[in-house]
Amino acid sequence: MLVGYVESWDQLAGKGVIAELDLSGRLNEDAPRFTVGLEDLDLAGHSELRRGRYVRFCLESGDRTAARRVIIDRGAERKRAAQLSAAAEDQVDGNDGRQYGTVREVVEGRFGFILLDETGESVFFHMSNAEGGVVKQGDTVSFIMREVTQGKHAGKRTCLRVRRCAARNSTSSAGAAAGNGQKSRAAQDFDDDDEFELLE
């Protein structure tokens, strides 16, 4: 069976979308998406599908676009709860709105991109906003996300006060995309641009 994350679920319509997770259990931006309907659910008891739940599912040979025999992946949900608990212990500033993710890419040691745990989106950060030293590809980090208000990148989001989560980094390296020596398109868009340096 495949492992997925419920990206959307319309309770009234009884349909939604499941994104397949990678081998390390992370959601990537380009992950395959599959439709799911009430007739595809194989849920026992009072379990219900909703956005944010982790599931296991099958694909039929004739239809590779729809998830079938969907069940809740309680093991993945327990693991996720443990990760969130560990993340809460890492948080020393109290409830300051920190989010969590994995460093997907670092470009020339100056800036990079973080894959958000919750959504799989990729968000920019400048290395000058890394607390406690340099972060590297594969690190699990916490950060505060803000919208840029000035310059040519106004309206885009950036990660500030980026901090490594030491308790979780021993298992996080598989979550980042493998580097191939080439800059991603997103990295090229931000190249030679220091507008994000020491934002906040």
TrEMBL record:
Protein's UniProt name: CSD domain-containing protein
GO molecular function per UniProt: nucleic acid binding
Biased composition (Low complexity): 171-181
Start and end residues of each CSD domain: 101-154
UniProt feature, compositional bias: Acidic residues: 189-200
Region of interest: Disordered: 171-200
Stored Gene3D superfamilies: Nucleic acid-binding proteins
